[in-house]
Amino acid sequence: MVHYAYGPYFDTKSKQVKNRNTQSKLKFCATKFVDFCKRTDLHGFKYIVMEELNGIERGCWAFAVFLSIICAVFFVITAYKWYATNPIVTVIESTQGAIWDIPFPAVTICDLNLISHRAAVSFVSNLSLPAEINEDIILKALRFAPLIHTSNVVTSEQKKDLLMLQDILDLNNITIDSLFYQLSPASSCNNLLHRCMWKNTLYACDQLFQQIITPLGVCCTFNYYAVDAAEASYKSDINYLPNPRRVASCGYGTALTVMIHIDTDDYFSTSVPSSGAVVLIDNPYNMPNMDSPISLVNPSTEVMIGLSPERTYTTSGVKSFSPDERQCYYYDEVKLGEFRHYSFHNCIALQNADIIKRACNCTPYFFPFKKQEFVRICNLRDVDCLEGISMPKDDLGLRETIDNLSYKCLPECEHFDYPLEVAVGNLATNLPLNGLSFFNVVDLENQSVLNVFFDDLVSTRYRRDVYFNWQNLLAAFGGLLSLMLGFTLISGFDFVIFFGFKVIFDSTTRVLPGGKKSKKKRKRNGGSIILVQETHKKAIKENNSVKDIGMWRTELHKQQKY
């Protein structure tokens, strides 16, 4: 006899079928998990299903395996984040790099006396002055002229004198940079430097050094290639070289030796309570500034500056990262004003100049601005504005100005550094010399000797390399997974084979209508009830009236009867 069900009967049967399907799936998953635990070589899994152990022991092993999986996932994610945050690493590659692979640094010498007394007296005597102003008043004001870009506090009386001096300069058509060139003790490098020797060969100092203007005043610099204008200046020199000079030897007297003339009787204006000269040692492509490595040469002394050069280079893979990812620029990646090479040092100098330009609508007299760009040079009337920048009352406002700039200052990817050691001794003027040509026919009174050289024949070489690559990730992740779970390539291969082929194949075979399990089920039930229910469900979907359903049941009963 055949039973026909509809309404609540079908809902109950449907729930039962769903429950049986869910139980079947859970049983299938449990069976496969047991099979996996028995066959895998991952640590601890086999003890979860080992029949020799009681339930408590198997539960402890299950908890230990679960905890190991959680720890492994945590450490893998942490390691990945660390690699992603620090994709580039710098390591010491060698301490035996050759020094001839490193350019000799730029050596900039500045007299601590910013204004020569003799030059100031001569300058004032040639000025056109109003009737109510005499030369003594101008001389007094000239003493304060270097305060234009100082970090010291300028008094109101000094500001009044500077404003008066600016009026006199305007009356005589003298610019602020021209003023410092005329008044500096280094108005010519031959005035500041009396004898120069490079690689044991004597040169006229004007052949090795060129004049540049810096925040320290007018200075003389050697091996300087920071700005394009420097190249044009050098081309008129018979000793011009297209690239920075190098040396292949080390020790005293093998590189640069200079005799500096320090005339303490000519001192008129200095920013420090000392006499002598300041020596700046830096990369040839960096603009000399107070943040460069610095040393002091006092009168009647001999100073030896030994350099231990360092070179940092990058591998080819580093360039594939964006500047934000590697946190550095290559020297030719960004063009900064008139600078030939990008460097963090030059970028900060440009940043400071742009801050002054935005705040005071002028550019510092010592900054190498573009010739085609018209900019007003800061003069003595801008002291109030410049003082507010050098000693800002609102750091947040200054930071906002920096953030609004169109460029971002990052370190260089490849660079040279020159750590230095200084030795100082008194210069004896009455001792017999051994015939060195450098000291022939020279009066050592008011002279100081500077020696700059490499300490050793070898240098330190650093390599900046990619750390965020598949090799390092494989090593890190493999080590963590092996430590926590005993994971190996073979166990990984077994995992893929088991879940990628066996489990999928078994689950597909179990649910396919043409599979063996479906046939057995159909044979066991005789096919009648299942076929009737399937036909009945189809009829319910296709017929919307109870009348049609009743006629269909009558017809079906007749067919079943016969």
From TrEMBL:
Bilayer topology: Multi-pass membrane protein
Residues of the signal peptide: none
Superkingdom of the source species: Eukaryota
GO molecular function, one term: ligand-gated sodium channel activity
Main location: membrane
Cited InterPro entries: ENaC
Location of the protein in the cell: Membrane
Transmembrane segments: 60-83, 473-501
Pfam families (alphabetical): ASC
Keywords: Ion channel, Ion transport, Membrane, Sodium, Sodium channel, Sodium transport, Transmembrane, Transmembrane helix, Transport
Record bears the keyword Membrane: yes
GO cellular component labels: plasma membrane
UniProt entry tagged with the keyword Protein transport: no
Coiled coil: none
Family recorded in the similarity comment: Belongs to the amiloride-sensitive sodium channel (TC 1.A.6) family.
Protein name: Sodium channel protein Nach
Organism: Parnassius mnemosyne (clouded apollo)
